[in-house]
Amino acid sequence: MAKKKPTEQLKAYYDAEQDILYLTFTKRARKAVAEEVGDEVFVRYDPDTREIVDIEFLNLSARLEQTFGADLKFDESPRPERLLFPIR
């Protein structure tokens, strides 16, 4: 059986209520161990196979504002419910 590339399963999900961006590498939820690999960045992995399950970026809006400035807008979508942050 051919080994799957990690990006074949990659999905992104943004939880606006919690302000967390999840990058998920598996189709189903799995038991995982979390390790903080950076300031409020967690990698969750299977403790047996060491396969990455997901990566979580906490406080995403503050990170983006710090990196790109306060004027950052997500106005590419005509559907406001699809925007990460409200347009000011």
The gist of it:
This protein is mainly β. It has 1 helix and 5 strands.
Question: Explain this structure to me?
Answer:
The structure is a single chain. It is elongated and about 45 Å long. It is mostly beta strands. The mean pLDDT is 80. Strand 4 and strand 5 form a beta hairpin. The chain has one domain. It has 1 helix and 5 strands. Strands 1-2-5-4-3 form a 5-stranded antiparallel sheet, with no helix packed on it.
Produce the secondary structure layout.
Layout: E1 11-15, E2 20-24, E3 33-38, E4 41-45, E5 52-58, H1 60-68
Antiparallel strand pairs: 1-2, 2-5, 3-4, 4-5
Give the termini distance in whole angstroms.
51 Å
Overall radius of gyration? 15 Å
Largest sheet: 5 strands, antiparallel
The overall number of domains is 1
Oligomeric nature of the chains: single chain
Task: Indicate the mean pLDDT.
Answer: 80
Tally of DSSP β-strands: 5
Order of helices and strands: EEEEEH
List the uncertain runs. Answer: none
Quick one: overall form?
A: elongated
How many helical stretches?
1
Task: Provide the structure class.
Answer: mainly beta
Into which percent range does the helicity of residues fall?
Answer: 10-25%
Instruction: Give the DSSP E fraction (strand runs of 2 or more residues).
Output: 25-35%
Query: What is the spatial order of strands in the main beta sheet?
Result: 1-2-5-4-3
